């Protein structure tokens, strides 16, 4: 029988022990239905999730809600929107109580005197040309000034098909701003012309991401196994989709058989009562989903499937470490 100890040498076994102690229990929260950008392909607006429920306006209700979430076992709050920085009092309700990650477009700087060590993920949709098409604004030119040198911020670089052959320039700019970067792929929920992936483009971008990780290991938070998973949508001979996704809201999960999944995961709307079906879009075809966190989680909950060989288990460890670094459970 293959065991962790039999598959790993001392170095890798020590890495395994560090992540095995973490027991991350996350959920996702819509902080607000509003945003200061309207990006083509943003799953929140493309699936009308901003219209599902009215925002809870009473900050005391937010504070009581967070306390209930902690009692439910949550130890990582992932704040999305809308744009969370439009409602910093709600962000603070989480931050004062439990480990908190804030996803932002970076146009408004999180005040570090108020949130000194909150991890911030700054969205970036391609290069300047792509951002003008998809977001109507070169957001990077603003966010990179707001967060330059910030040790608790990194870029969530959503790579588009038009970025093939161009990612190095962006990664260098992020490095030069003193920041880290994590790559994921555009899902193109609104079918913008020229931004839907072909099989060859996915193969090409996998090779490019691997090359960038080799060239910029101190800037990129990634792994080649993750690149393979997110570009192919396959893991251990299985295909990503509705019946495999681990990030479905637990009380709404009626799948049979129930797959390996995140424990007690819920994505909450901003009324603090309504639940969304999953970590991304109510309307997305799951076979087209390229969400980075969903694919990382898919690997993470399937440790047993990676016990076939030393390399498989090392791949699993690297993905788990990557997730833990992105949410500040491990240092860079």
Structural features, described:
The protein is α/β, with parallel strands linked by helices and 332 residues long. It has a single domain (4-326), classed as TIM Barrel. The chain is 36% helix and 13% strand. It contains 12 helices and 10 strands. The chain has an 8-stranded mixed β-sheet. Strands 7-8 form a two-stranded antiparallel sheet. The longest helix is centred in the middle third of the chain and has 17 residues, at 199-215. The chain is globular.
Give a concise summary.
This protein is of the alpha/beta class. The chain has a single domain (4-326), classed as TIM Barrel (Alpha-Beta Barrel). It is built from twelve helices and ten strands.
């Amino acid at each position: 029988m293959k065991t962790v100890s039999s598959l790993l040498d001392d170095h890798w076994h020590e890495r395994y022990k560090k992540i095995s102690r973490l027991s991350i229990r996350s959920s996702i929260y819509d902080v607000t239905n509003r945003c200061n950008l309207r990006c083509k392909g943003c799953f929140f607006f493309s699936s009308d999730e901003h219209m599902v429920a009215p925002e809870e306006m009473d900050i005391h209700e937010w504070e009581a809600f967070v306390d209930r979430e902690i009692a439910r076992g949550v130890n990582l709050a992932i704040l999305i929107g809308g744009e969370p920085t439009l409602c910093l009092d709600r962000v603070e309700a989480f931050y004062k109580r439990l480990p908190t990650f804030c996803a932002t477009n970076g146009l408004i700087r999180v005040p570090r005197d108020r949130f000194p060590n909150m991890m911030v993920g700054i969205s970036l949709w391609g290069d300047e040309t792509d951002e003008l098409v998809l977001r109507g604004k070169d957001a990077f030119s603003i966010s990179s000034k707001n967060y330059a040198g910030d040790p608790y911020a990194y870029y969530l670089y959503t790579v588009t098909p038009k970025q093939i052959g161009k990612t190095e320039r962006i990664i260098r700019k992020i490095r030069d701003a003193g920041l880290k970067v994590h790559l994921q792929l555009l899902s193109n929920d609104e079918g913008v012309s020229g931004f839907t992936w072909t099989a060859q483009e996915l193969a090409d971008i996998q090779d490019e991401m691997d090359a960038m990780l080799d060239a910029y290991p101190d800037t990129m938070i990634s792994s080649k196994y993750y690149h393979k998973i997110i570009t192919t949508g396959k893991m251990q001979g299985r295909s990503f989709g509705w019946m495999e996704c681990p990030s479905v809201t637990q009380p709404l999960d009626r799948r049979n058989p129930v797959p390996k999944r995140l424990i007690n995961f819920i994505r909450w709307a901003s009324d603090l009562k309504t639940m969304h079906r999953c970590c991304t879009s109510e309307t997305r075809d799951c076979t087209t989903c390229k969400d980075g966190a969903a694919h990382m989680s898919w690997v993470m909950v399937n440790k047993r499937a990676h016990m076939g060989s030393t390399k498989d288990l090392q791949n699993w460890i690297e993905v788990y470490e990557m997730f833990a670094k992105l949410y500040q459970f491990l240092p860079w």
